[in-house]
Amino acid sequence: xxxxxxxxxxxxxxxxxxxxxxxxxxxxxxxxxxxxxxxxxxxxxxxxxxxxxxxxxxxxxxxxxxxxxxxxxxxxxxxxxxxxxxxxxxxxxxxxxxxxxxxxxxxxxxxxxxxxxxxxxxxxxxxxxxxxxxxxxxxxxxxxxxxxxxxxxxxxxxxxxxxxxxxxxxxxxxxxxxxx
Length: 180
Hints:
- The chain is mostly beta strands.
- The protein has helices spanning 2-19, 64-67, 176-179, and strands spanning 23-27, 33-36, 44-46, 83-88, 93-96, 102-109, 115-120, 123-128, 132-135, 141-150, 156-159, 163-168.
- Strands 5, 7, 8, 10, 11 and 12 form a six-stranded mixed beta sheet that branches.
- The radius of gyration is 37 Å and the shape is elongated.
- It starts with a helix and ends with a helix.
């Protein structure tokens, strides 16, 4: 036990002797500054005790001397969470239109000036200031739509969930066998 204690005392004394050594500052001909514990030509001793007096600020950004007696209050601004919903067509709805006309209605909450971007089958189809879209000549079959709400710079603020609708068109082949 006394050997361990002696070891710790020796380590402590070594640390004290290292920290008590003198530090020298030398400015070279090219203007670079060199700090060393070995004195050289033109070296000036540096007083380290005067330099190590920095007080770290508290967590609230107020120094500890100012923090006594008052509490720092920060206003926290919360980002507005926008939500885009597609009112029509409903998810998994089947539409019947031989011309391929599809009406899509979307809205954002809370209301804000911006642009609505319609994506049909993962391709941008239209961007406009309101959420009412009229598409023409849409092919029959399953289609996935999504509406993004953009700010003035084009940054996406919110997106609707992708939803699928089905478009059916009458086919000339359906009644072709009865006509013969």
